Amino acid sequence: MKQILLSFFVVLSTFIGTAQDFNPNLWIGKYAGIMHLTSTTGMNDEVAVEFEFKEVTKDSVWTYRMCYKSEKYGEMIKDYRIIQPADSLPNNFKLDELDGIIIDMTYFNNTFFSLFEVLGTIHTCSMSLENDVIRFEMFGGNLFNPTTITTSIPEGDDNETYKVTSFKPNYNQKVYLKRIQ
Asked: 92-115 pLDDT, tens per residue?
């Protein structure tokens, strides 16, 4: 019974979330900030980031460029494309990395979310806009060494059991990008 109620609330929240449409005009502009890179191996670093968000095709395709500037590693530029498929719900998007990789994204509360796996590492990414600041955060962890527990719910007649599997995050990238133009 509890699983049915939980499933109902998850589905309901999905439909409530679709009521919020993406407004690209709020995002369009240039931003800058310092990205903090952290890992459980002790690697900590900072990289200057310039970010630009533009519209490519009205109401369906946008691009953003992240330019990383590091004294240690030099400059790296990465372009991305955000696509809103015509045949999808208003909060469904695709992130095209312009190298053959396309990632599903969902948009809720002024935030793009993605969750994907590459070579045994799961990555989560969020990019949100609030008061002319874009907060970009990505973290991930290895899928090969999970912690799993099985437990039961003590209340109720059905004595339900469930399994929880957790994965330890091992890196984080975070930047607050302030609008400069």
From this structure: 999 999 999 999 999 999 999 999
Asked if residues 119 and 132 have their Cβ atoms less than 8 Å apart, the reply is no
Residue 7's H or E segment, with its range, is helix 2-17
According to DSSP, the β-strands at 133-142 and 121-130 are: antiparallel
Going 128 to 130 to 132 to 136, the CA torsion angle's sign is: negative
pTM: 0.83
Amino acid at the residue 8: F
Gap between the Cα atoms of 92 and 83, Å rounded: 9
Q: Which residues contact 93 (CB under 8 A, 6 or more apart)?
A: 22, 82, 83, 84, 85, 104, 105, 106, 107, 112
Could you read off the pLDDT of 5-41 as tens digits, one per residue?
A: 344 444 445 444 444 689 999 999 999 999 999 999 9
